[in-house]
Amino acid sequence: MNEFKKVLAVLMAVLFVMLCGCQAKVTRPPRIKVDQSGSFAYEALTNGTLKIYVYNERDVKYGVKRVNIPSEIDGQKITRIRKGTFDIFCVVTSIRIPDSITEIEDDAFKLCNKLELIEVDKNNKNYVWEDGALFDKEKKIIKFIRKKR
Length: 149
Known about the structure:
The protein is globular, with a radius of gyration of 23 Å. It has two helices and twelve strands, in the order αβββαβββββββββ. The strands form three sheets. Strands 1, 2, 3, 5, 6 and 8 form a six-stranded mixed β-sheet that branches. It has a three-stranded parallel β-sheet with strand order 4-7-9, with no helix packed on it. It has helices spanning 2-21, 57-61; strands at residues 32-34, 40-44, 50-55, 66-68, 72-73, 76-81, 94-97, 103-104, 117-120, 127-130, 133-136, 142-145. It has a single domain (30-145), classed as Alpha-Beta Horseshoe (Leucine-rich repeat, LRR (right-handed beta-alpha superhelix)), CATH 3.80.10. β1 and β2 form a beta hairpin.
C-alpha cells in the first residue's frame, strides 16, 4: 500500500508540472461577418482589408449562376479569397474577380464543376484567366482549371 501511494504521488506531481508548466496558445476563431447583401461572409484582417470566407448558398438556391465579387464591403477593400469559398456551389458558371484581389488560397474553387469562366479585372496585378485556367500573373501557379465537357 505504501508503494502505491508513492507511485500515485509521483504521477500526480508529474501531472501537476505538465499542467502548470505548459501554457497552451489559445487561438480565437476569426470574427466572421456577413455583408449587407448577404452574399458573402468575410473576416477583417489585421492590415484593414477583408478575406472572403463563404459565398451564400441562398443566392445559389435562387438560381444565381454569375458571381461578382465586390472590390470592397463597407468601405474596406477585399484582398483575399479563402480556400473553399465556392466549394459547395456547383451551379456557379462564372465568377468576376476584381483588381483588389491579391491572394486566392488553393482550392478556393475546388468543387466548382460547372464553372466555365473566371473573369479577372484587367487591372488585377496578381491573376489572369487564360485558356480555361486561372493563373498567377507569372503563369507559374494554376489556381483553377475549367473541367472539360
